[in-house]
Structures are given as structure tokens and as C-alpha cells.
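Hi team,

As requested, here is the filled-out complex form for the magnesium ion run. I kept the field names the same as last time so the parser does not choke. Let me know if anything looks off before we queue the next batch.

— J.
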Amino acid sequence: VARQSTGPVIRAERSYVMIKPDGVQRGLVGEIITRFERKGFQLKGLKLFQTPEDLAKEHYKDLASKPFYGKLVDYIISGPVVAMIWEGDGVVASARKLIGATNPLAAEPGTIRGDFAVEVGRNVVHGSDSPENGEREIGLWFEETEVVEWTRDMTPWLKE
Ligand code: GDP
Ligand code: MG
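And here is what came back:
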């Protein structure tokens, strides 16, 4: 966290990224983490987590009016997820590019959904759609004590 001499705390951009239950069941955890790691984002939180129904509902509350909302909540609580915080400049938009389009058949090859999925209802991974929602979702899924502040020795080799 950087603090200007006056004014508010400027926090590095963070995204909430989640490997959904199908990604965990299919053994894609390492593959997905590798893509964010090798891109150069910094991991700030990580846990395997069985999602309570009320949390799944809150996470997707903006979609509550959609016909697929019930199925979506059932999907997210159908098995453990891997909940992650990734940090870095532009991480929210870049994570969405790494993840690919919502409909995996429309997702480009080379993206996670493009490479590993065929249906919107089993699209393997979640990424926040704005920095504001990133912070909202991190607040929903992580306790403050689960967010790890650490210095990555590799950073000078990634950023000038
Ligand atoms: P995302 O930001 O790319 O994950 O997409 P959205 O925020 O629009 O939707 C959230 C999640 O709801 C998606 O990742 C899908 O798992 C699911 N979803 C979205 N649209 C549909 C749909 O038309 N049918 C079904 N079954 N699930 C959907
Ligand atoms: Mg979304």
C-alpha cells in the first residue's frame, strides 16, 4: 500500500479470481494458477474453500433476476473452489483476457475458457469485472488475516 504525502491510500489493483468446482474436479488448479503466475501478477491470497450457499448468492447477486441464477448458485456450491487474490497494475482487465469470453465456445484458444471448456454453465474460472468489484469480492471471500502482504524478489525483473 502506497500513501501519498496528502490524500487517500492508493492501493494496488487486485482481482478476485476463483477456480470453480469444475476446474477443481477436473484437476486444472495447477494449470490455472500457472497462467497467472507466469504472466507476472502477484498472489496475495489463496485457499481451497467449500462455499456456503449465502456467499454464492451474494457474490452473484447482480444476476439474481436471470433465469440461470439458481443453477449458477448450485454450480458454485457443488464442490470446493480455489479462491485467489491476484495483484498488479491492470490485473482486472488482464485476468479477464487470460480467462476468455463467458461462453467458452466464443473464447479464443489460448485463454483458459478457450482451452478448457465448452459450456457457459461449466466455464471453469471467475475473474472480477472491475477494480471496484474486485475489492467487493475480496471482502466477501477473504478475511483480512488471510490476505498476505509480502515482497516478491522477482518484481525488479518484471517492472522497470
Ligand atoms: P463472467 O463475468 O464472464 O463470469 O460472466 P457473467 O458475470 O455474465 O456471469 C457469471 C457466470 O454466470 C458465468 O461465468 C457463467 O458461469 C454463468 N452464466 C452466465 N450466463 C449464463 C447462461 O446464459 N446460462 C448459464 N447456465 N450460466 C450462465
Ligand atoms: Mg461476471
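Two things worth flagging: The beta strands are 2-3, 9-10, 14-19, 42-49, 81-87, 125-127. The pocket of guanosine-5'-diphosphate (ligand 1) is lined by residues 63, 68, 71-72, 102, 120-121, 123, 126, 129 (CB under 6 Å).

Thanks,
J.
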